[in-house]
Amino acid sequence: MEGCRSNGNLCKNGIPSRGGPAVVRRTITVHASSELACKPDLFSLSVSISNTKEDAEAAQTSVKRRSEYVLQVLRNNGIKEKNVEKSTDVSRVCEEEVRVRTDLVAQTESLQACETARNVLVTKMDSTVHCSAVKPLHSPAHRAEKR
To answer: Which residues are in coiled coils (predicted)?
Structure first.
């Protein structure tokens, strides 16, 4: 800075000449962050059903029967079928065996419905059915509302 004028006095490097106040331009930069805690409005339960057999049709039938039971347990606990995503994969494990796996992911607003359905499935089904822990979620609308 070559010089600046403050009250008619010339100053260099922010030091006023002849006792006048210096005018110094400064920049203030502020950085901030925040955190918001809110209760989830959705809960998710994932169920995986798999079976490996020599006969592909037998493996598919077994997995289909179990997935129908899982869907019934979900319905009995107030979880609508439209809120359940289903995907099925068939793969060859070795020359003689075929593995069939179906994944079901249910979402609902009721934590109790998810927990009750999970408890029924864990106690009633065998090791071919695996239930995840219930996961709390925030819907896109809920997140947008809180912003």
So the answer is: none
